[in-house]
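Budget justification note: compute hours in this period were largely spent on complex prediction jobs such as the one shown. Inputs:
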Amino acid sequence: MKILVVCGNGLGSSLITEMNVKKALGNLGIEAEVGHTDLATSKTESADYYLGAPEIIENLNDGTRKIIGVRNIFSLPEIESALKENL
Amino acid sequence: MLDIIMKDILGTPAILVGLFALLGLLLQKKSISDIVSGTLKTIMGFIILGAGATVVSGSLDFFGKMFEKAFHIQGVVPNNEVIVAVAQNAFGTETALIMLIGMIVNIILARFTPFKYIFLTGHHTLFLSCLLASVLSVSGLSGVALVLVGSVILGLWMVISPAIIQPYVRQVTGSDDIAVGHFGSIGYLVSGFVGKHLGNKQKTTEEVKVPKSLGFLRDSSVAVALTMAIMFFIVTLFAGQHFVETKLSDGTNFIVFAIIQSITFAGGVYIILSGVRMVIAEIVPSFKGIADKIVPNAKPALDVPAVFPFAPNAVIIGFLSSFVAGLISMALLPLFGLAVIVPGLVPHFFTGAAAGVFGNATGGRRGAILGAFANGLIISFLPALLLPVLAGLGFENTTFGDADFGFIGIILSFIVKLFT
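Corresponding output:
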């Protein structure tokens, strides 16, 4: 399973979020490959789930992708519950 | 042998940065495969960012010439990625060393002072390292002295910058768990202040109807391509078909030329960004891992979009207000005898949006609009004032975009002048 974390530039928020998603996955005992990139690249990179701030990830919501919106990228509880709900 | 180590190994910035990543991965006891791939990808990222610089240089040069012909004044496109990538030839080693030691200084300060901030926005750490390397070099420092002075200033600002805006960040997020690490902090400080004194906290931006359609600008590649296409188009019209086709485009139609050059610029920025992404992808997690072990109660200072979801309307309003200030500044700057700073969609987006969020937290919609407007003026005037400081370094037509780079660069060059 691959989760792609997306933000505007692909190196600020998405990197930190990737680190926290990996931590959350560890807590939940789920195994997945996690990567991060910018919005432009994400459109052509395939993943099982795309995760990011709601306003960013909306741009990827074309009906063919599974998207997960997370408001507070540093809240492990919020990330964990978003993952539990969507995975 | 020592010569090879000093000049060729440590003197090649890509390898130097790769060694930092290697050190960080070893300290974190990662697996051999992680260590090998992480180190190689970091070196590759640095080389990629250099490659991006060559793609951008040509188009930036054409833009400068067209602007000069069209308006008889220097036109500058402030873009952090571009100036830093271009600067690596001259200052790559110093940049890398300042960055590494600066991060160590950050950890030490967080460990022994009440400022527990760990600055995690890696690309800004890289950019400020480069600014410091350039300004201190112009001011006459070199070698060990340059690296030490630069690292201490970097480490200090990595802690002070989040600290000065934390009161506003607390108002935005409603907690003290996260901080913001972003070198536009001077602009945010001003915006929060403006909001507090001129705004009305009760009337928040989140109750206003704001078109969501502008959200596509959060894709920075699109934003850069769009800005440059519009700018190139306008400038080429004013420079004139004859000038462009005889002097610059080798006969190609001037409009076609302008469009291709603008997208070339955007493409180059995209390449630089992907290189920077790879460089910091291993360094930031190592930095955080080590900091967490050494600094109890470490507070992560995150890239500024971390606060955007708390006030999405303020993001758009702030961006628009800041950008308008940038446009107006294009007319104001020449009146002060300064070069024209072309307002970039990306700096006005990220910093204007942030200024909007902070301005809204302290002063509602009026705070967001006025605060972001102030930010827009700041990121037009500070880069213009920074230009003479970096003159002679060969960074034509571009400079650092965010407020703190200009602020620190200008003050630093003042201070060094006092001593020499």
